[in-house]
Fold these 4 entries.
Entry 1:
Amino acid sequence: MEANVMPNDHKDQEEYILLDLDSVSGQLDIPPSAKYVLTGLDTLNPVLIIDDKLKLVGEYGETIGTCIVFTEEDSPVVHEEAGPSEANLFSGTKIIDSSQPPKKQVKPVCQLHKVLKFRISPDSEIQGVTTEQPK
């Protein structure tokens, strides 16, 4: 009797997490080029420090249903010469149409299972932003 045994392959599986800054985006202006440090991803409350001034505390939440992340790329409009013809010297050739604006192509990147929602840390010292809780 022969057993069909599959090798036990323990590859690291990638897990994608959405960083949700919606609750703090109206309170502060985070420049796109801001430096940041994200620590404690394996804890219940990861910390995000932006530009060495702003401290945000995160809390995990599960996604509801299927959550898929997409990327968008510009793609030139391409025409392919087709059909047999004595006059068609470029049969099978692809020609980029520069008179057409590029098309947007959307491709799936990954599926999410968790969302990490951030709030301003009570002990964060932010210039020009009040973090006091209403009394």
Entry 2:
Amino acid sequence: MRVAVLSDVHGNVPALDAVLADMAGQSFDAIVCLGDHVSGPVDPSGAAERIMALGAICIAGNHDRWTVDTTLKRAGRIDRFSRSRLSAEQLDWLASLAPTATLGNDMFLCHGTPSDDETPWLDNFYDGRTTVLPSEEAVAREAEGIVQEVILCGHTHIARTLRLSDGRLLANPGSVGMQLVRGTPDAHYAVIEKRRAGWQTALIGVPYDTEVAARMAEDNGFAGWGAAIRHGWAGPEALS
């Protein structure tokens, strides 16, 4: 089995198009998308259109919830903007997404952790340019009761894999559309493949024209997003 794993597109169509072009020369048994699909200042509707056409297994992230219901406490200006750009059909699709899913008997999909789409899992959120790594005990606690060999999550925008002591593989593909702190502006996704020796992960960064995406964000009134998209060094505080 060979699976393409996308997460955190955040409405960045030029980044998504670069990833889809990279995937086009490959063969996959499935595509999965781990949430936060549209909430961003580049092209929310275009992102929804492309993701809906993939035939992928998609789940909801926290920003998807906030875009569907902008009265929720944590919903912000970016979610209200994104909602205003979506068609009724796209909003219905977003509202229909479940918080978790499985792919056969092999993979479990969530956005943050299995129980909470706002909680980071494999990495804690940034403190400046520092990311605190949780202990194996803390990571394993969230995986209790999950029987699948591969567990996928997103939310932190940090591409990373780890294995628990029992052999289960946990992977975060990073973000397709919004890079922060780490200094890589490339669009990120992952390929997970079951080979003779077991599950193998490739974390892939795809270059794209970040200037086009940054200018679209700025033209829509989100200057901080433009700076982050161009260079991938900004912290989340820049995205107001």
Entry 3:
Amino acid sequence: MTHGRANILLLVAGAIWGFGFVAQSSAMASVGPFMFVSLRFFLAALTVIPLALREARAAPVKLTRADYNGFFFIGVLLFAGAALQQIGMQTTSVTNAGFLTGLYVVMVPFLAVILFWQWPHPIVWPCALAALAGIFLLSGGHLDGLTIGDWLIVACAVFWALQIIFINRLGMKSGRPIMLSFVQFMVCGVLGLVATSFTERSELFSILAAAPEILFAGVISSGIGFTLQAVGQRFTTAPQAAIMLSSEALFAALFGAMLLGERLSLQGSVGCALIFLAMIAVELIPALRSRARVRP
């Protein structure tokens, strides 16, 4: 797969997540955050089982214990991010949640430098800041006072950033992105179920009330979206992946306009433009400079 096609997959993942944000928010009226996370990721695991088995049959070598350990660790990071986001959404506004979740765009290159002294292409820094500014403008350009929910969303962004980094560091060595997705989904489902048993009281009628949101978040947002992320990241860098995935906010605004009749303000339109320019620049500028170096 080419670098460009990988980024297209990441864009599709961002579009799916943007569409699914409403499902995550409305489901909280019926079920607790840990139950939602558990059911969501168990459904996601069921969604990718056929693909994981097909991938395993076609694989030239078997996975090692180290591979599975890496998959498990990535699953823990995913669970921490998903759980913190769901809990935080109970006590913060959608505007704040959208902006603060987008902090992972800037956190990825910073954490990559801090943890591994891995310096990205210089264009990543202004592009990450431009994408973050775009998300901020899309959210309305202001924060309504930071609550405990806001700080939980900030912590969620840290774990999203770490998950993106470690997919590239640990998950891609095996060449088995579908199995990576299956394992991390199962880890999230089991951890969510354990947390539910200690913290929440869920009944069948409440789960049925949130069934449409759980189905969409599990099959589409998680099963398809996170698998596209895992596949796409095999052929691109973590900072570039973070910027491409930040299109989630852009697509959320577009779907809101198309399906709910919402209209973007001038400020929101500028935010869309900043995200789009950041995605184009992070893709084209490194490629153009590479071609310039090899040109006779």
Entry 4:
Amino acid sequence: MISLSGLFSLSFLDAPKVTRWVISKNGSLQVKGSTNVNTFSCVISNYATPDTITVVKIKPSDTSISLNGEIGLNVQNFDCHHPMMTADLRKTLKAKEFPKLYIRFINLSRLPVLLTHHELIKGWVEIELANKTKLIQVDYKIYKDAQQIIHLIGNRNVNFTDFNLVPPRKLGGMIQTNNLLNIEFHLQLKNLNY
């Protein structure tokens, strides 16, 4: 027969482990692509909206970690370091009609150890762009620096057409943007559980 205190300790052991990471200032999102003429890199820097990502390990035996949280970025803040290219990207991404790009965090393949060297982990996110949402697996690098800031760097290739977007063309089609884009986001997080 199990005592009441024994039931309490068993249920406590089975309780989900919840950690909260607060998104700090200085996050960024970078998009890299190419045309038939050159390459380009566009960035939204200094993401500073105070959002929280909740990290949940349901059972001690689970390897997969559930995440809950999102970031919303203003598409109008993309800067390609060239005015015409910046305007073309914003127009292609329908910034006026759909001003926000959302990244919603779903899970990590395992709980990170959070050491000072990069760990490689996979995870799933939903990206919503131009009113189209796509579930995407992301390759993460994650580490903690000397100031106890957690760096979460996600990287994935996507296509314009994944979001029903047509890659921009210029000069009567002589300059064509390739369909493939590389997206990298870098978030700086603080663990609220300390």
